[in-house]
């Protein structure tokens, strides 16, 4: 009997491939069978969990004290400490490198043959290296293009350009996942609007070079992948300021024990101590922990004894990673975050408990453009789903939010303060938060709590970026469904239907 049982299991297992749960399982609501075409074909997946995308590191969320808790030497008072919670997410292990960005430019130029302006607009501004009284002209030609700098962080990229790179990366990774699943064949000859885009594929506006679609249990035929299949990943995007600061501090490295919620020491930098030198007694003792400007005119020390060994940005995997495994969360290049910059954001969030989970000052809420049947209209000439800003009329009657454009929410509205750009301030609706300090900054700016801003359509030789991704499901990993599970002595209640 045992041998027969084992044999029957071997025969049944192939039917459970492609993520479906046991065919005999029934709905706890209706009693109808899942994954059975005779019962309507409604599917319930035995979901395998979110894959970790290329170059991403899982960051387990939690609560922390966000803000500048050290001396505010600039007297900006723009990052008042307050306790917030950040959901689990993913962060790039490194800053986006020159070779990464050149791959993006190659694809853009190759694909948008009828729209060369798309490629031109994506080019980094190599002229950011020029200065009136400095001989940085060689970097104008070499830093982005020469193979010696392949693994150095890309600079000269604006906030807007960084966002478009992240969107492109989302589509290429999701296309790769469908190819690896055997659903699509590689299609390197995509042109203009006929290119893989995650949203257009899910909306049925792009088919691609199909190898084998999924079985449709409802119709008995085949179907393309749906969002509900959980195969494709969420968007690559810029991290919020809160996510970036939380990931940079990596305070899990100072957790007293795994049995409590105590952090032994707060950090000034992404490492322990009040110095940027390695303090453990070994061959590395005294070595610089980050790429920054130590003082006037000192970018890398003296010949024969260089300190950080980098006069400009360094390799994206240089220096020690922090306790989350992230490289260069201090120094090398400052990094764009998703947030609009406002000095009083921290005070607003501190006074409102509604904003202490995933705090973020965004821009405009967006929505898909739909036709009269509620279906997305035809994709645009670049193969993307058409989007439009949510209007204030669209949110009338809602209780969770009443404003569609939140750039100035409670910090810039006439009711509170009016920013007059170019008269009283350099802050405007284009101002975006940058974090982390760079190779050209003093040590103060390397503290994760320090914050500065720059217009979203401008670039700099000291600013790069890395991407983040939302974590779906339980905060501790794919085996976690959230919430504490307790063992009980009570016998399980049998379902009525079996």
TrEMBL record:
Keyword check for Lipoprotein: yes
Keyword Phosphoprotein among record annotations: no
Biased composition (Basic residues): 486-498
Segments forming domain Sulfatase-modifying factor enzyme-like: 54-368
Annotated region described as Disordered, given as residue ranges: 473-498
GO molecular function: formylglycine-generating oxidase activity
Top-rank taxon: Bacteria
Transmembrane segments: none
Pfam families (alphabetical): FGE-sulfatase (PF03781)
Alphabetical list of InterPro entries matching this protein: CTDL_fold, Sulfatase_Mod_Factor_Kinase, SUMF_dom, SUMF_sf
Cleaved signal peptide residues: 1-22
Keywords: Lipoprotein, Signal
Protein name, entry field: Gliding motility lipoprotein GldJ
Lineage summary: Bacteria, Pseudomonadati, Bacteroidota, Saprospiria, Saprospirales
Underlying gene: gldJ
């Amino acid at each position: 009997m045992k041998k027969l049982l084992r044999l029957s299991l071997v025969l049944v297992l192939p039917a459970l491939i492609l993520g479906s749960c046991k065919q005999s399982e029934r709905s706890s609501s209706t009693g109808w069978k899942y994954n059975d075409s005779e019962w309507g074909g409604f599917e319930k997946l035995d979901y395998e969990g979110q894959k970790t995308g290329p170059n991403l590191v899982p960051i387990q969320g939690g609560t922390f004290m966000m803000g500048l808790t050290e001396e505010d030497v600039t007297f900006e008072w723009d990052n008042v400490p307050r306790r917030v919670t950040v959901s689990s997410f993913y962060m790039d292990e490194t800053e986006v490198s020159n070779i990464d960005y050149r791959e993006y430019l190659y694809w853009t130029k190759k694909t948008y043959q009828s729209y060369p302006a798309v490629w031109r607009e994506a080019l980094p501004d190599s002229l950011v290296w020029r200065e009136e009284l400095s001989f940085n002209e060689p970097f104008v030609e070499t830093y982005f293009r020469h193979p010696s700098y392949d693994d150095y962080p890309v600079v000269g990229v604006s906030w807007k350009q960084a966002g478009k790179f992240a969107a492109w990366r989302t589509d290429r990774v999701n296309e790769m996942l469908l190819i690896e699943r055997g659903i699509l064949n590689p299609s390197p000859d995509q042109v203009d609007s006929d290119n893989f885009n995650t949203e257009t594929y899910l909306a049925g506006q792009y088919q691609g070079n199909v190898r084998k679609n999924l079985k449709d249990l409802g119709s008995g035929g085949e179907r393309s992948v749906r969002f509900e299949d959980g195969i494709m990943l969420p968007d690559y995007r810029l991290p919020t300021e809160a996510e970036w600061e939380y990931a940079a501090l990596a305070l899990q490295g100072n957790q007293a024990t795994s049995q409590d919620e105590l952090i032994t020491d707060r950090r000034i930098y992404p490492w322990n101590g009040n110095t940027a030198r390695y303090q453990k007694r070994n061959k590395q003792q005294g070595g610089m922990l980050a790429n920054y400007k130590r003082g006037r005119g000192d970018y890398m020390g003296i010949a024969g004894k260089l300190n950080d060994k980098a006069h400009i940005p360094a390799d994206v995997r240089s220096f020690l990673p922090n306790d989350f495994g992230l490289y260069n969360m201090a120094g090398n290049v400052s990094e764009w975050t998703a947030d609009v910059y406002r000095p009083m954001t921290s005070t607003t969030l501190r006074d409102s408990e509604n904003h202490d989970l995933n705090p973020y000052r965004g821009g405009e809420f967006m929505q898909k453009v739909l036709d009269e049947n509620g279906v997305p209209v035809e994709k645009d000439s670049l193969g993307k789903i058409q989007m439009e800003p949510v209007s204030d009329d669209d949110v009338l009657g809602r209780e969770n939010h009443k404003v569609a454009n939140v750039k100035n929410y409670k910090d810039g509205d006439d009711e509170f303060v009016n920013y007059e750009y170019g008269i009283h301030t350099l802050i405007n609706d284009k101002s975006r938060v940058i974090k982390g300090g760079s190779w050209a900054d003093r040590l103060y700016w390397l503290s994760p709590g320090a914050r500065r801003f720059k217009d979203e359509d401008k670039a700099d030789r000291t600013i790069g970026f890395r991407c983040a991704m939302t974590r779906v499901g339980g905060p501790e990993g794919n085996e976690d469904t959230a919430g504490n599970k307790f063992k009980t002595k009570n016998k399980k209640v049998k379902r009525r239907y079996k």
